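Retro notes (design track)

What went well: tokenization of the new backbones is finally stable.
What didn't: we kept losing track of which sequence belonged to which structure.
Fix going forward: every design gets posted as structure first, then sequence, in one message. First example under the new rule, 223 residues:
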């Protein structure tokens, strides 16, 4: 087997506690939703929302999507705008598990290319890693991808990712806590590893390698 050349990581439940997204980021965005859609920079997003759900006020649609935690690109873009302001004024700091940053630095020193693939917008990803509890670590990553590539439970999305980063699937390792995402990545030929974080109540998969933390990934795949 060829050594891994690239690692693509999920965020929520993988690098970052689910509680941070669920209990900090989402409520923060919801509380500021009405003021956010009144800003000129939200006009394009509102038009996209109204085009997707004709005849319903965009605010109603956005609230429903928030309730459903819908992986919808315009919602993620708007949430990103709201979080941008929060990170900028110091109200928010991106949470990371304490084992993550040191492992990422080790992998980069070893020659691996690192990428992020999350249902949150690329802008939101960069905010989280750019204002993380460990400082700005965006420079460790060679690229960021969101649902514009495709949904994370579809194998075709991982085909596009590998084409985009110009690395054969067999040399790419995908990290996630979600079994269905790992299934899709595996179907596309990627290597897979599930992060089973006790704090997040992750259910271990029987179809993928499982580890409790990023040092476990290092040991399991000799990174």
């Amino acid at each position: 087997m060829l050594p891994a050349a690239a690692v693509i990581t999920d965020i929520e439940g993988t690098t970052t506690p689910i509680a941070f997204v669920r209990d900090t980021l989402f409520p923060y965005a919801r509380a500021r939703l009405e003021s956010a859609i009144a800003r000129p920079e939200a006009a394009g997003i509102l038009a996209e929302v109204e085009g997707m759900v004709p005849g319903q006020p965009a605010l109603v649609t956005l609230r429903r999507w928030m309730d459903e935690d819908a992986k919808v690109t315009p919602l993620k873009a708007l949430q990103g705008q709201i979080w941008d302001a929060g990170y900028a004024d110091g109200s928010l700091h991106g949470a990371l598990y304490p084992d993550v940053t040191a492992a990422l630095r080790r992998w980069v020193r070893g020659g691996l290319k690192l990428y992020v693939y999350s249902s949150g917008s690329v802008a939101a990803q960069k905010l989280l890693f750019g204002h993380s509890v460990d400082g700005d670590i965006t420079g460790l990553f060679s690229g960021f991808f969101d649902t514009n590539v495709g949904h994370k439970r579809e194998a075709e999305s991982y085909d596009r990712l590998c084409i985009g980063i110009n690395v054969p699937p067999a040399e790419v390792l995908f990290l996630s806590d979600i079994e269905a995402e790992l299934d899709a990545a595996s179907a596309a030929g990627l290597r897979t590893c599930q992060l089973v974080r006790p704090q997040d109540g992750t259910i271990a998969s029987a179809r993928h390698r499982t580890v409790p933390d990023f040092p476990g990934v290092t040991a399991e795949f000799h990174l």
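Added context from the reviewer: Strands lie at 6-9, 113-117, 143-145, 172-176, 191-195, 209-211.
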